[in-house]
Design a protein that fits this description.
By secondary structure, the chain is mostly helical. It has six helices and no strands. The longest helix is centred in the middle third of the chain and has 34 residues.
C-alpha cells in the first residue's frame, strides 16, 4: 500500500513541476505581449485549468484510498493548493496580455521590466522550492515579495502624480499578485517540512 501511495505522490510531484513550467511560460507570454506578441497565454491558462483538475482527482483518490498522515497528508494538501496558485499565475498573466491588447500603446517601462524580472525570479524560486521541498527558499521569497510590493506602490504614486501611465500600475498589480502566489507556494513548503503554517 505504501508503494501505491508513493507512486500517486510522485504523479502529483510531476504534474506540479509541469504546471510550474507552464506558469513560467505564461509569465513570459505576458512580458512579450508588451512588445506586441499576443495570444499565447490564454491557451496555457486553459491547459493549467485541466491539469489542476487532474491534481484534484489524484489527490482525492490518494486521500480516500490510503488515508495518509503527517508529511504525506501535508504534501497532498499542499499539492492541491499549489496547483491553484500556479493556475492563478496564468490567469494574472492572461490579464496582463489582455491589458496590452486593449490599451495597444503599452510598452515596457524600466519599472515594468524590473517588476517582470523580480516576479519571474520569485516564481522560479517557489517552483524549485516545491520540487526539492527546500524551505530555506522561503526567506528569499519574502524579500522578493517585499521588493515587488514596493514597485507596485511606486507605480501607484507615479500614477497619482501623473508621472507614469495607469497601465503601468495595473500591470504591476498583476505582477504583485503573482508574487504573492509564489510566496504562498514557499509557505506550503514550510508546512510540508515542519507542519507549521507561516
Amino acid at each position: 500500500m505504501r508503494k501505491l501511495l508513493d507512486l500517486g505522490m510522485e504523479k502529483l510531484r510531476k504534474l506540479i513541476t509541469e504546471m510550474g513550467e507552464m506558469a513560467l511560460l505564461s509569465l513570459e507570454g505576458a512580458r512579450k505581449s508588451l512588445e506586441g506578441e499576443r495570444n499565447s497565454v490564454e491557451e496555457i491558462s486553459s491547459k493549467l485549468h485541466i491539469m489542476r483538475e487532474e491534481v484534484l482527482d489524484i489527490a482525492t483518490e490518494l486521500l480516500v484510498r490510503y488515508s495518509p498522515v503527517a508529511g504525506d497528508l501535508r504534501f497532498i494538501q499542499s499539492a492541491i493548493d499549489v496547483s491553484y496558485d500556479l493556475y492563478r499565475v496564468s490567469r494574472y498573466a492572461m490579464e496582463i496580455e489582455r491589458t496590452a491588447r486593449i490599451v495597444e500603446s503599452v510598452r515596457p517601462t524600466p519599472l515594468l521590466e524590473r517588476g517582470f524580472s523580480l516576479t519571474e525570479e520569485a516564481l522560479k524560486t517557489a517552483i524549485e522550492a516545491f520540487q526539492n521541498l527546500e524551505e530555506a527558499n522561503y526567506g528569499k521569497l519574502l524579500e522578493l515579495d517585499k521588493e515587488i510590493d514596493e514597485l507596485y506602490i511606486s507605480s501607484l504614486r507615479g500614477m497619482k502624480q501623473e508621472k507614469c501611465p495607469p497601465f503601468e500600475a495595473l500591470i504591476m498589480r498583476h505582477l504583485e499578485r503573482i508574487s504573492d502566489h509564489a510566496k504562498e507556494i514557499g509557505a506550503r513548503v514550510v508546512y510540508i517540512r515542519e507542519g507549521k503554517r507561516v
